[in-house]
Amino acid sequence: MNLESDVVGAAILGDPTGVKEGDRVRATGQIIEVPVGDALVGRVVDPLGRPLDGKGPVATDRTMPVERTAPNVVVRKSVDTPVQTGIKAIDAMIPIGRGQRELIIGDRSTGKSAIAIDTIINQRETDLICIYVAIGQKQGKVSQVVGILEEYGAMDHTIVLGSTVLVFGQMNETPGVRARIGLTGLTMAEYFREEQNQDVLLFIDNIYRYILAGMEVSALLGRMPSAVGYQPTLSTEMGALQERITSTKSGSITSFQAIYVPADDYTDPGIVTTFGHLDAVVSLERALAAQALYPAVDPLASFARILEPRIVGEEHYRVARGVQQVLQRYRDLQDIIAILGIEELSDDDRQAVFRARKIQRFLTQPFFVAETFTNQPGKYVALRDTVRGFAEILDGQHDDLPEQAFYMVGTIEEAVEKAAEMQAIA
Ligand SMILES: Nc1ncnc2c1ncn2[C@@H]1O[C@H](COP(=O)(O)OP(=O)(O)OP(=O)(O)O)[C@@H](O)[C@H]1O
Q: Where found in the cell (predicted)?
């Protein structure tokens, strides 16, 4: 990297042991290349594509440079097919189209990774290839992710890229490597999109660590920091990654990116820069997680660009807007309920409150990753069933069922069954 006209900075990607002042640096004229190809599917590799799973070398001769330009506007395709995550709250309320980017935003431990992992598991029967990129995750979390994906037979369509950082600030990957790992995953995804005409899901967990790694590299190179200490190249670096995530005439790359908001400050330049590139935002709330309403998605704080009748269809659109309205009404009434009690509400408002509480519970579902916590097998719910379930609640077909029947079930039929079981016990 040229810092001044006659000064060049170099970032170390490998083990820096033995590198000392006065050593000669030689320009090879090459940029980093990583292995690509079918042989990577089912493998766990490091940011340079070297195996981490002890299953021998990756059997491919093809490599591709990690730094490439984004497809130009002519070859891009407009978004018309939603991806089915199998998670009701997301498919119904915050759908994502093939070739789009969805941010999963939430405080620590609110379930960002859980959404990513269940979405991967739910693609077992589909034509989508999944690439999970762990940027700066603890070793324990990466092993846990791999273990769960293997247990549910999801490694057959998944590549995991692990970059690990040990706690207490010790790193076993240089910032140069962490700043590249997102690009490595993306390059592997581009191979499937461009050369195999496939659709790929790319999970970046967590994109904020990509920003931090870029910041460290910038500081090491002696560049003058910009706003709030971020690298002056922040928006170029973010654009270079995000613009390559798109659909083309050959196939698509859709991405889910987890992020946490530093000090809850939504005006932080790192967050603002990331937001600018996104088509949908899934907002996770600690208050919902605290009530075990998992996934802790707040549909009122989330949004999706494709939630319009032309793409998702009239019925889905009607239902999603209906759910938002009922939840909003419940939120508006909460102060009155707290002061006067629910009995003081008009019949209409009372009905809205009861339906909203059922909807809040129907937005939950058992996750595969959380089986050990919930003691319930994970559930995949098809989009059709999801939309129908919410429609029936909104239309008042289940006004007579207790709200607990809607909690942690898959389809609406399961809620009806659960209500019957509850009644039998009572
Ligand atoms: N769908 C779920 N069902 C039940 N429990 C869940 C669910 N999602 C998350 N949890 C609980 O929350 C914990 C944290 O989840 P997860 O690791 O996915 O959060 P995260 O936001 O990715 O965390 P981090 O900020 O550390 O990356 C889990 O260990 C589990 O106890």
A: Membrane
